[in-house]
Amino acid sequence: MKRAFDIVVAAVGLVVLSPLLAWIAYRVRREDGGPALFRQHRVGRDGALFEILKFRTMRSAPGPSITAAGDLRITDFGRWLRAWKLDELPQLWNVLRGDMSVVGPRPEIPEFVRHYAAEARQILAIRPGVTGPAQLEGIDEEQQLLAAADPERHYREVLLPRKLAIDLRYAQSASMQEDLRILARTLAGVASRALGAPRGRWTGKLLAGRRPVIELVNLSLALTSYLLAYSTQTDLDVRPAFNRDVLIALPFLLAARLIAFRHYGLFHGWWKYTGVSDLVDIVKAVSLSSALFVTTVVLVFGAFAVPRSIVVIDWLLLITLLAGSRLASRLFWTWGSRMLRERTDQAIVVGDLAAVEPLVRDLVDSPDLPLHAVGLVTTTPVFSGSRIHGVPVLGGEDDLAGILESNPVDVVLLALSPGHAAVLRRILARPLPGAPTFKVVPPLRDRIDQRLRLRDLRDIQTDDLLGRDEVRLDLQGIHETLTERCVLITGAAGSIGSELARQVSRHGPRRLLLLDRNERALDALMRELIDAPTHCVALLSDIRYSERLRRIFAEHRPELVFHAAAYKHVPMMELNPIEAVKNNVLGTRDLVAICEEFGVRKLVLISTDKAVRPVNIMGYTKRVAERLLDGPANGSCRKIAVRFGNVFGSEGSLVPILLRQIRGGGPVTITHPEATRYFMTIPEASQLVLQATVLGQGGEIFVLDMGEPVRILDLAISLIRLAGLTPGRDIDVRITGLRLGERLHEETLIDAGAVRSAHDKIWVHPHETREPIFTELEHVEQLVDRYDENGILSWLRRVAESPRSPAAH
């Protein structure tokens, strides 16, 4: 059967392509006067030698037997032939003679075959082919040979073994069905490679001729529609009078169609990407051209020479033909591309309708996506059983486990908007059958040319579990606040401090002072900012060394200070309250005093949600630090505080700890199954700190909107599943109980006294009057010197919980 197929394909191909073959032979001979065909001995079936035929693509000149890309012997026309694989066409004669088959392993020269291993010689049991499986594996021989020091040796030792392994697999399981698939994929690959080939003289000429062909096709459809309209109106009884009317009106009709089609760009689009906008343009173009045609006929002949019914029928037929031809092309392209794929992964799409619809359309239409959507799971109410672009809606979010049980798939595509992070966490928290791979689909606005590409799909990232909306910033105000200023950041090597440094550096401050006591982290940050358009200065120091701080301020005169240096680890501070007070309270006191002394314009304290009705040492010290901003002022330094909750992924915080436990094989430890926390990403927190800096006039406590609290257990299970593991089977989840100083639920940062600021994600507490505490700090220093923990704890609780009252205005 295969031999009969080869004979039919070769014979038909030689007859149909004979004009093309003759033209190519003429062009090859005209190029340099040499022969049109290249002949070379190759090894065929059972080791027999035969003479393979190809169009000659190279000049006769000395050189290696292996051709690399850019070989100067290749002619311009030969390069074009190779791009389109037209140089292989004479091998149809080899197929007809029985030397070769249409599909099979590519034949090699005797020199290489002599070195075949015994196993590789099994390939010689079948006829070699014009095309074969090795050609479909994307092995770009010419480019690899170009980079090789010894092209022939590289081919013999690297490329040839790879090709032989592929061909051997084919030889062991060859079938007619496989041959048809290889042949179809080859034709599609040739077209794809040729259209992406360098624009040489011949490739450019061929592609430049595309538009006239499209114009001819469209005008032919217009002519066909007009003739069909006449035939339909007369019931196929066309009288001589009608023939006369056709000949008289036809030039005016085609001219009108040509003008309108060009105006609406019908000659420029790619039919395989036809969409609703193209169909609208077709209706507009046909309507305009019909109106132009009728108007012209009336003006020229003084009367309506064409029956009105014919104009209406022609209008309907032409819209149908133009739209139908484009839709047919799109369907053919989509069907053909899917038929040619090596393997198609089955996918279920999860998301709301607004995000799912364009994604499903891309999955149905795109030829370069090896994914097949078998169903939709919506997060919005939709009638189950309905279809979107032919893909059935299988149910809602709660039905996902059952859907995957009855519809095993390879991939779950998540098309979730930023506000659907809770949905994502719930999905990952459930045990799902089949262990499918989860992929996130970018929003339509983030895709290049508004279409989905395989490279756009990405794994779920930890930030996706928060789903925070994009932050809207007053960039002009931030730029005016930071540009040409000297800015100091304490704790600059920490998570928030380093992100503040990155974002501040983009606004062109005159100088950026980075102060931290962690030398390695500070050095890494300086290396990262080495190309920043800002003069950065690394200052290695502890915030508690007031004399060192005073020298820094005297030398650099900072105008804006971000105070991010603090001890933040809650259980550690419970065990070391004296150190917490020395760093978070006394260090902040000294910084505030120095800022006042040197006339700093604005001091921004990075505070925490734990300062809200504090219950632990960390919260007490940060609450006291906020109160220090109410201390004595000389009128020049405006002091504000910015509160926010946990930052997602900061060093020493929950997420890095969980990830380390997962990488270590577990167990993952959770303090309480119902514990919740507020989270914000590091970039978002830093951006909003800068925004609050612009809004602050002095004395305010700004509170960042942290959104909804996240259950820690759900977060941990989601991270385990993201690692490709199953909770309880691959990784144990262990409940350890609340640690020292921890709450079950964090207090909401936005209480009844807060009002929304000019920014929708920033709230502000009004100015408050409180008893000054600066005078008490000398007593606190004595307690620290005596290491009196009980005295320190008693003072912290009293000061942090002292009543406050709004200031009178």
Determine the mean pLDDT.
Answer: 78
Q: Count of DSSP E strands? A: 28
Major sheet summary line: 9 strands, mixed
Oligomerization state: single chain
Radius of gyration: 38 Å
Structural class of the secondary structure composition?
A: alpha/beta
**Rough shape?**
elongated
The helix content is: 40-55%
Strand content: 5-15%
Write the layout of secondary structure elements.
Layout: H1 2-16, H2 18-32, E1 37-43, E2 49-55, H3 76-84, H4 91-97, E3 101-103, H5 110-113, E4 129-131, H6 141-147, H7 151-172, H8 176-195, H9 201-208, H10 210-233, H11 240-263, H12 276-301, H13 308-340, E5 345-351, H14 353-365, E6 371-378, E7 387-388, E8 391-396, H15 400-406, E9 411-415, H16 421-429, E10 437-440, E11 458-459, H17 475-482, E12 486-490, H18 495-505, E13 511-516, H19 519-528, E14 536-540, H20 546-556, E15 560-563, H21 570-575, H22 577-597, E16 602-606, H23 617-628, E17 638-643, E18 646-648, H24 654-663, E19 668-670, E20 676-677, E21 679-681, H25 682-695, E22 701-704, E23 710-711, H26 712-722, E24 733-735, E25 755-756, E26 762-765, E27 768-769, H27 777-785, H28 789-800, E28 805-806
Parallel strand pairs: 3-4, 5-6, 5-9, 6-8, 9-10, 12-13, 12-15, 13-14, 15-16, 16-17, 17-22, 18-21, 19-24
Antiparallel strand pairs: 1-2, 7-8, 10-11, 20-23, 22-26, 25-26, 27-28
